[in-house]
Amino acid sequence: MQRFLSYENTILAVVMMVSFINPFTSSALTTALPGIGTDYGATDAQLSWVIELFLISSTVTIMPIGKIADRIGKRHVFFFGISVFCISSLAVYFVSSLEGLYVLRLLQGIGSASIFATSMAIVSLITQPERRGRAMGFTIAAVYCGLSVGPALGGFFSYYLGWKTIFYFIAAVCAAAWVIAAVSMTKEEWIVNANGSLDMPGSFLYAVAMIAVMVGLSEIISLWYAKYMIAVGLVVFLVFLYGEWHKKSPVLPVRIFADNRVFSFSSLAAMLNYCATFGISFLLSIYLQRITGLNARDTGLILLLQPVLMALLSPFTGSLSDRINPAILASSGMVLITIGLALLSVNVSFPSFWLIALALIIIGIGFALFTAPNNNAIMGSVTPKYYGAASSVVSTVRLIGQVLSVAIITLILSQSGTAVNADWLADHIQEAFIVFTILCAIGIVPSAARSK
Predict the structure, then answer these.
(1) Number of domains observed in the structure of the chain
(2) Where in or outside the cell is it found (predicted)?
(3) 379 with 428, same domain?
(4) Does residue 432 share a domain with residue 328?
(5) At 172, which CATH number?
């Protein structure tokens, strides 16, 4: 019992609790959006910003926050993140407009960035290298548990108690994590560079670039100037990278990517992975309900196959990556995900619930093989000095991949040159799955090449 409640395992439990919250919040809110729209009289386009603002806020702030954590201590920033997430969730009680909810989602994005910029670094610092993969596996399992139960619990809360209770549940989990952390996380602050600069110019350029690109991608169909925003964002990002290369204390240590093959290739593989897979549930939800006529309950049960397998297998694959080269496991996972996506592409033309289930099982196993070992490879490729930056990069590439995935779906499904009917929808869903299959296949290359 004493070993189970060791310092290392207690901190891991806290990180698992807060890792559960982020995906749970996003997946639970998808079921609550209709209720939010009814309460505030919002359109679908307005409701989409409830999700988008959170992603943008997290992506923009995670790198600067990681830099701040290196200076003032990861423990302080970790507690700040939990506190912000908790308080902003409770504050929904006072929200009476959609604009107010937007503000809370921006704050939750900052809280999430503070948590994820530090949590993986903290786990890496308190865990022995030979057990790091196991710890990553349990953390990833918590993420997928949140993803799995989010729609079910979110639907329950929204239907019986009102959508605001989702936020109260989130606040309760955050409060419990805060108390456990306050009691147990007292040994170290994990300060890496107390005298380092915060690189305000670099942080500003990074924020401008990310906002321009993400908003441009999200609104590329509805705003005529969105493509110019993307172009400006990319130019600013190149200026940002050039500046970071020549700075002694950059917000993003760009030289890691040039000097560390494992780190750079693993990060690229992760971005392509999330880009290829984030839209799977969205596309299948539309396909199963609008084309095959399945109801929402049965659709949800089918979609559970993938995240449940991820949650069950990730601790095992994480531990396995402590003994086997993580590149081999992660690359094998990418191959399986590619096969699963290809099966989904075929299924659109030859509908079969069994084929969908088989594809989701293969993707679930592939994801479990990829994520924890890939994270273990990234964190194992850098020295403790760069754990904070590596933790921030892992979360950043995940968020960028998710935004790109949504942008691809938006572009494909917006090509309504003819009447939108079941055949048109099926053709374009198939097109999206083919694009995702190709992206995932491309991702196999950097995943396999990282250790050569």
Answers:
(1) 3
(2) Cell membrane
(3) yes
(4) yes
(5) 1.20.1250.20
pTM: 0.81
Burial 216-252 (b: 16+ CB within 10 A, else e): bbbbbeeeeebeebbebbeebbeebbebbeebebbbb
In the block, tokens 């919250």 appear at 21
Exposure string over 397-408, b if 16+ CB within 10 A, otherwise e: bbbbbbbbbbbb
Does residue 52 sit in the same domain as residue 185?
yes
pLDDT in tens, the chain (452 residues): 445 567 788 888 898 899 888 888 877 887 777 788 888 888 766 777 887 888 889 888 888 888 888 888 888 899 999 999 999 999 998 988 999 999 999 999 999 999 988 888 888 888 887 888 888 888 888 888 887 777 778 878 887 888 899 899 999 999 999 999 888 887 777 777 666 667 788 888 988 998 898 888 777 777 888 889 989 999 998 998 898 888 877 887 788 788 788 888 888 999 999 888 888 877 887 788 778 877 766 777 787 888 888 888 988 898 898 888 888 899 999 999 999 999 999 887 777 888 888 999 999 999 899 988 988 888 888 887 777 778 878 888 887 888 788 778 877 877 655 455 777 788 888 898 999 999 999 999 988 887 65
Provide the H-helix boundaries in 41-97. 44-72, 74-90
Range of the domain at 225: 200-246
